[in-house]
Amino acid sequence: MYRHWLIGLVRTRSGRLVGTLGGVALTVAFVTCLSAFLQSSAAEMTARSIAQVPLDWQVQLLPGADGGAVEAAIRSAAPVAALQPVGYADVPGFEANTGGTVQTTGGGTVLGIDASYLSRFPAQVRSLLGSVEGVLVAQQTAANLHVSLSDEVVIHRRQAPDVSVTIAGIVELLNADALFQAIGVPAGAAPQAPPDNVLLLPMAQWQQLFDPQLGGRPDTLRSEFHVKLDHHDLPSDPLAASTAASERGHNFEARVAGAALLANNLAARLEAVREDTLYARLVFLFLGAPGVILAVLLTLAVAGAGRDRRRRDQALLRLRGATVDTVLRLAAVEAAVAGIGGAVLGIFLGALAGYLILGVALLRSETVALLATVAGAGVALSLAAILIPTWRDARGSTVAAARRSIGKHRTPLWSRGYVDLVLLVLAAAFYWRSAASGYQIVLAPEGVAATAVDYTAFLPPVLLWSGLALLAVRLVGVGLQHGRSVIARGLRPVAGSLADIIAATFGRQGPRLTAGVGLAALAFAFATSTAVFNATYEAQARVDAELTNGADVTVTGTSAEPASRALDRLSKLPGVLAVQPMQHRYAYVGTDLQDLYGIDPTRIGTATPMSDAYFANGAARATLADLARTPDGVLVSQETVNDYQLNRGDSINLRLQNVADHQYHMVSFHIVGVVREFPTAPKDSFLVANATYVAQQTGSAGSEIVLIRSNDDPARAARTVRSSIADLPALKVSQIGDAVALIGSSLTAIDLAGLTRLELIFALVMLAASGGLVLGLGLADRERSFAILVALGAKPRQLGAFVWSEAGLVVGGGMLFGLLAGMLIAYVLVKLLTGVFDPPPEALSVPWGYLAVLVITATSAALLAATSEAMRSQAHVIEKLRGE
Q1: How far is CA 356 from CA 166, 351, 453, 757, in A?
Q2: Where is this chain's protein located in or outside the cell (predicted)?
Q3: Least enclosed by CB within 10 Å: which of 65, 424, 437, 609?
Q4: For the ranges 34-38, 70-74, 164-168, 875-879, which has the lowest average pLDDT?
Q5: Distance in Å from the first CA to the final CA of the chain
Q6: Residue 223 · residue 88 · CB < 8 Å
Q7: 64: left (phi over 0), alpha (psi -120 to 50) or beta
Q8: For residues 15 and 26, what is the distance between their CA atoms, to the nearest angstrom?
């Protein structure tokens, strides 16, 4: 019996069976891809974070410790890839006599390193000028002392005579915060600032110079081991990797208790990544959950499109003696075939999409449990879509009632309870709560490794998405019941004299039509919100990259070798649209040494975008105009304003180094505004002033940075720039693509582009299904009604009026409500993720091309379904009237 029933379904009800199978397959494929994305992104976050740790371990030897024993303990506790001893000596200051003047600095630090340190830890020190062997001076110290290659620097030692060394090279300390961190301080303590003045000596020379200081002031010297571990055996999961890294550190600490202190930088970074994984999962839930819900609803809608016919078929079975249990078992056969077939097809489609879109291989042994779970969920979905309605119909209606073509309609429970309005009120309340906290979804207090996540912040978009869709269903339902005259006027261009009749039939078909409009609105809203968020994210990622790198291409020099030396030749290169010099000096605000950037406010925007978000007043043009009108004007950071209780218009005295005597002198400025971000500037404290005024006060008009805007590919433009300044080895060239690879946050560390690309493709498929498949199956379920019209003499054009009008209502209504809802949801999401964007976007970026594709896809699918049904309705009329 079951075999004959199934064969009959395939022969006469193949549309609904294939539709349900396709809905299950789409759901399974989408969930499979999203799950694979979550796993791969977590592994990618772990790998990237490990690669970004410059020093895995810093081991400080305590007084009297045996260095050899500590080194042996390190190698026993963890696999070591590189290990180097480093000496630290605190000194009262440095002194240099250059150009007939004497420059002195405050306290500093002298490091002792082996010759192989730079090659084994390349992320720590970068050579800017000269050799990497011999005495090296940090870039900022070289600027303070105004020294270059072959100049002599006097080191003032504690309780030991001064000693002179000759500079062999100038270097940049890329990770000074980690290099000079305090080891063994209590958890949660604020990090200490690195020293302003640093020299690096070969280890043998360092030991020779500071052994005398060890006897008198041992508290000013310390020794460390810098360790790079072998990461091959670390798990890819952030939680497991964090646990493994911490256990290695605890193992070492147990071996050297009382002999050394450990700074486990790797474990600290992985702990942060473990917390960031929660953020990534939240983003995954918001961006992915609506798609999963939509796919489930689509499956239920496809299965529900044939519910009336299925109910009549089952009533006929009961009329011929079948029991309720038999009817349920037959329905279970249909559900099992659709569920199992859809699950298998969905897994293969998901594996194919995951490989092509995300580059993830899913069909492997590690994913068996995941695929089995998703497949089981697909089968359960099919059973829920078919078996539950069948059980309700069999238990709750008589055979006569089940065979009626038109039944009594009851207002849905959600409509009677105004669930749509409740959801919208809740969305507004949660959004207001997040707005009141400044959209701080992830809270990471300074100096505290743990991260707190506000999980409720992701509720507003989901609640808004659901509430707006239900509101659209309510409004369309009210319109169909009470706005027939308006609908008739709108249908007249398509339906002609039948407009009033069709409008009346819409009122009788309200539940089915409103469900179709609601599903189409959900699909449009999901696709629109995802597309707008993705476009905004991509646009802001470029702004972030320009902020980090400075411009398309940036040339960086030093005070001794300014990049402005090459300004003329750079401006004449092919493809260069604009070139702007920018000074990068240092200035003391009180005792705090800050970066100072000298610019031409009227022209800086030609080489790099000046975003409104860079400035506290949100007005870039007005702020730069104020700076241009005030020769001694300066823009200060918010941190400086808070620390020194400053206000706009206040006079502030800064100490700048003068080129004549290389000493820091007091220079008066007036505050004209507050700057939050600026190209190439650090994230905390910095200053922006007029380059002309800085040049007048310091006696140096050179600019350490040149910003270049090009219409060529940035990488190719950077190669051209490098070739043109090959005779100036002190100048370094970077391009915006390098910055894109370095930009990191909990959201950008995951492959958001892959996720959104996956969702945009599936959104198109779901939109086509909601606009075509559901509509087509709904029309097909009314074949007998259309056959009656044909039998009564309806012409093809008159029959088409019913079909085209219904298609226009479903797709047009869903499009209108969905596009508006999608834009609103995208706005809310971007606002909630303000902390992810750096700087926050000034406005949404709308991908008009993709939205046009959405409209064309939905319209084409609806046209195809309507055309197919209009043609099929005129065939086999007699069989349809007999109830085939």
Answers
A1: 58, 9, 33, 11
A2: Cell membrane
A3: 437
A4: 875-879
A5: 20
A6: yes
A7: left
A8: 16
Q: How many CB atoms lie within 10 A of CB 312?
A: 16
Residues 6+ apart with CB under 8 A from 607: 551, 578, 579, 580, 707, 708, 709
DSSP string of 496-534, one letter each residue? GGGHHHHHHHHHHTHHHHHHHHHHHHHHHHHHHHHHHHH
pLDDT per residue as tens digits for the range 57-68? 999 999 888 989
Distance CA 786, CA 239 (A): 60
Name the helix (H) or strand (E) containing 718: helix 714-724
CB half-sphere exposure, 16, CA atoms < 13 A: 26
The rounded distance, in Å, linking the Cα atoms of 153 and 95 is: 6
Tens of pLDDT, residues 79-116:
999 999 999 999 999 999 887 788 888 889 999 999 88
581: preceding bond cis by omega (within 30 degrees): no
Q: What is the 3-state secondary structure of 164-223?
A: EEEEEEEEEECCHHHHCCCCCCCCCCCCCCCCCCEEEEEHHHHHHHHHHHHHHCHHHEEE
* Backbone angles phi and psi of 442, in degrees to 5: -110, 120
Bridge partners of residue 91, in order along the sequence: 108
Residues 6+ apart with CB under 8 A from 676: 613, 614, 615, 616, 637, 638, 839
Residue 451, pLDDT > 60, answer no
> 632: closest CA among 662, 666, 578, 669?
669
Task: Compute the CA torsion angle 257, 263, 264, 270 (nearest 10 deg).
Answer: 150
- Amino acid identity of residue 503, one-letter, is A
Amino acid code (one letter) for 520:
A
Helices (H) and strands (E) in the chain, counts: 31, 23
By the 8 A CB rule, do 55 and 228 touch? yes
Q: How far apart are CA 582 and CA 678, in angstroms?
A: 12
- Helix, strand, coil percentages in the chain from 3-state DSSP, rounded to 5: 60, 15, 25
User: Tokens 């620097």 label which residue?
Assistant: 153
Strand, coil or helix: 728: coil
Q: Exposed, middle or buried, 262 (CB in 10 Å: 0-12/13-18/19+)?
A: buried
Q: If DSSP codes are grouped into helix, strand and coil, which group holds residue 398?
A: coil
What type of residue sits at position 511?
P
Give yes or no for a contact between 221 and 88, defined as CB atoms under 8 angstroms apart: yes
Distance of CA 758 to the CA centre of its chain: 14
Structure token digits, residue 224: 């460390």
What pLDDT is attached to residue 882?
Answer: 53
- Residue 406 corresponds to which amino acid? I
How many of the other CB atoms lie within 10 Å of CB of 218? 10
Distance CA 882, CA 884 (A): 6
Q: Which residues contact 629 (CB under 8 A, 6 or more apart)?
A: none
**Distance set, CA 518 to CA 19, 384, 608 (Å):** 19, 20, 45
- Using one digit for the tens of pLDDT, what is the confidence trace for 126-172? 888 888 889 999 988 988 888 889 999 999 988 888 999 999 999 98
In whole angstroms, give the CA distance from residue 187 to residue 120.
Answer: 29
C-alpha–C-alpha distance, residues 245 and 289, integer Å = 33
Rounded CA separation 566/705 (Å): 10
Q: Which of 711, 815, 740, 712 is nearest to 770 (CA)?
A: 815
Could you state, in order of their start, the residue ranges of all structural domains in the chain? Answer: 1-57+236-258+272-408, 80-229, 410-547+743-884, 558-730
Which residues does residue 173 pair with via DSSP β-bridges, in sequence order?
125
Q: What is the H or E stretch that residue 334 is in?
A: helix 324-353
